[in-house]
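Title: Comparing notes on inverse folding

I've been comparing how different people in this forum approach sequence design from structure. To keep things fair, I'm posting one structure and asking everyone to reply with a full sequence. Here's the target:
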């Protein structure tokens, strides 16, 4: 028996698995880079977080960079790691549903919707950090792509995200979702989902599933 045959079989199986999770080739490197962008700011500590977070008073003083950086800075490592795991899940489910530039538009639209919503409708929120709102935008956009293809999981995902946001709007954060103890700004999830779905409504997703 040729020893290389089982080795090649394992290699091909690993490649198929990575592709099914959208982690093969450049997709995998892009995921690693994006997770690093969420995790590395933790090294700046409390002082770095205060400079980068959404801060209503600082924004009023013209520190506009916070509208972007607020979505990549977190309360602590566990908060950043949890959001990174959420990103990995969204990546596995949806990464190939849109082209990279389309995803960029969805991310920017989600973050802009969160920033606008917090500024215009949640004046009592003085500061905000985290990627969960933007992740809800990714989920809403990916779910819309699956619904357009009439995939069964699209309906399951749609029921989940609508039910989750409806629960949060009526009863507050889901039980055990505030594991980092910093409070969950559930309105950011709503604004992010609306922003992501709003941008995705004008984009053409991939026509066929993997």
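Reply #1:
Here's my take.
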């Amino acid at each position: 028996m040729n020893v290389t045959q089982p080795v090649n079989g394992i290699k091909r199986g690993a490649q198929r698995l990575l592709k099914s999770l959208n982690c093969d080739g450049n997709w995998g490197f892009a995921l690693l880079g994006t997770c690093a962008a969420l995790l590395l700011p933790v090294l700046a500590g409390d002082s770095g977080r205060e400079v980068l977070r959404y801060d209503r008073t600082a924004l009023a003083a013209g520190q506009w960079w916070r509208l972007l950086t607020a979505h990549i800075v977190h309360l602590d490592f566990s908060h950043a790691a949890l959001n990174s795991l959420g990103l990995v899940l969204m990546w596995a489910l949806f990464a190939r549903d849109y082209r990279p530039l389309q995803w960029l538009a969805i991310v920017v639209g989600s973050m802009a919707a969160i920033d606008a919503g917090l500024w215009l409708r949640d004046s009592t929120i003085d500061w905000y950090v985290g990627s969960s709102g933007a992740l809800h935008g990714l989920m809403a956009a990916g779910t819309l792509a699956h619904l357009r293809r009439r995939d069964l999981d699209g309906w399951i995902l749609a029921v989940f995200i609508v039910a989750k946001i409806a629960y949060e709007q009526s009863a507050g954060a889901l039980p055990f979702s505030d594991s980092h103890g910093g409070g969950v700004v559930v309105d950011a999830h709503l604004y992010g989902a609306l922003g992501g779905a709003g941008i995705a409504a004008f984009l053409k997703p991939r026509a066929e599933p993997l």
